[in-house]
Amino acid sequence: MGEFIAELQERLLPEYEQMKSYQVFSPEQIRECVRKRERLLLNITKSQISIADYLDFIVYETQMHMTITEKEKLAGMKLRGLKSSIATRIIRMYREMLVKFAHEKRLWNNFIKFSKKSAPQEVAGIYEKMLSYHGDDPESWTSAALWLYEYNRLNITRVEHLLLRGLQRHPASEAINKVFFDILLKEAAQADSKRNLGENTVSEQEIKLERVASVYRNSLASITNLDYFFKLLEVCEDYPEMTVNLQNLIIKDIQTKFSREPALWDALAKRELRGFHLGDLQNHNEKSEDNGEPSEKKLRSDENAVWQTRSKKRRIELCVLVYKTAVKHVQTQEMWNLYLEAMLTLSRNHKTDRAFIQQCLATALQDGHKSKLMHSKHYATLSMILGSNENGGEVCVRILTEALEHDPSLQMRELLLAALIRNDDEPSINKLFSQVRRTMGAVGLPLWQSVISYYRARGDSHSRRRLNDIFTQACKQTWPEFVDLRCSYLRYLWHEHSPTKARDEYAKLALQPPMSVQLHREMVQLIESTKLKDLPTIKSWRMCYEFMATYFGKQDPSVWIDYIAFERDHGEIKNIALLSRRACSTLNPEFVSIFEEQRALAHVAAASTS
């Protein structure tokens, strides 16, 4: 290390001379640079060196390199020697650091990132060293291979050897297999497809396509993720005619291996939309077999175009046909979801052939309903479509009622209730609500709220009677979730009847389980909204806080803080001291300190606003 530092200090002298002669920095800046480097050099000569010591030096030199680059542009001169000297020093510093801290992969990545710009010819060697320490990460192998290939396409042999080594360690790695497949496919695309070798039997391109197929076959034995094979097919679509037989091979294999997977059928249907008709592959296979050569043995197709050009409408028809076949073979809700989502996507994204696409969507929704496997979210779509139709209300109710027999979920009941409300079918709404009340328990709360909103909106005498009955039933429920309805009832009585009636009902509900601080706070807000401060109002107001203190005063310090604030602002000041003592004696011990702190803060806030 001593020799390294001495050599480094000696190398720095010409740099300072260049900085001075080219007037890159002022004499004072150069002296500051010398002092800074001396401190940094001292840090890396310590007996115990940390990563941070090296990184501080590297960061400083990197910033220096960037500054000199900017000076170059501004002054219009070239400072290659100065920049090269700094870059060399940074690289040497990285190498020294990685000898000691080779386990830190981020350091290797930073080193490689810097070297790609400053010394690209060194990157391959850095990758090799990194792989000896971090070969357990497939990403290291793929990044190394991609760099080698992109840096110089003539490195293809070295790239292949590198990826084969990576596959020996990670045979089931999707990333390594995919990169290997992509690179070999690019090589095949650039190969000569007409020049024959040997006895005029195969072309260079066919040989390279066979190597692509070998990588694929090798991955087929170890990879079970269907998405991986979809990615291979997508790459093949970039070379549609060249990879016809390779696509056929992949599709046959995944149809055998994943025949019951909804995602397989979904991918095949979407390929039809992109113009890759399965029937074209089958026709090509038949022609190849008629010529006495199975397509599996011939990886490059002949010169005739295999994929026919079709109109968008025809491609949609073929896509729908695949989905219809799929839902017959794979009768699951997931398969129907994929089919319906594809139709919805088509209806949103295509402005031409809209009538035809809407008909396809309508047919899919109708068939999905008949299958009894359609999800509630697609019933929502069907309900919206029918609801926008003048004569669709009754049909919508009939369909949703049928669906409810095999899917009695909350979402389906909400859809049916919404349809009945659109039709203003009050008897049916009341009938459905009675079923909900008997069978759904607390889960049915959203339906209670919708029915209450419906009757409030109607406003006739019959609806008001229904509404009072529903609120009365809601207040008798003991589920904690129904406190919201109790609060709604108080607001309804306050605004639609009278404050007196609301207060009387509150006095009853305050004693009726389940207890909830939310009910009392609701009543406080209603009383406060009147802006009245007469004795009866203050008395009712205080009663709300007294209820809260009685039922929740052991575990909720905020109840006492609010009670004290009420007495301070609207009640009797003399009650504050008594309330403070009550709070300290009532609260559980672990909450007393919290109360004291909140009371002090409230006192300071009140004093600052007075």
Summary of the model, kept short:
Helix content is 76%, strand content 1%. The protein has 610 residues and is an all-alpha fold.
The major sheet is characterized as: 2 strands, antiparallel
User: What is the radius of gyration computed over CA atoms, rounded to a whole number of angstroms?
Assistant: 39 Å
N-end to C-end Cα span: 72 Å
Portion of residues in beta strands equals under 5%
Number of helices: 30
Helical fraction: over 70%
- Return the average pLDDT rounded to an integer: 89
Describe the structure.
With 610 residues, this protein is mainly alpha-helical. Helix content is 76%, strand content 1%. It has a two-stranded antiparallel ribbon with strand order 1-2. The longest helix has 25 residues, at 51-75. The two termini are 72 Å apart.
Keyword list:
mainly alpha, 2 strands, 610 residues, two-stranded antiparallel sheet, 30 helices, 76% helix, 1% strand, single chain
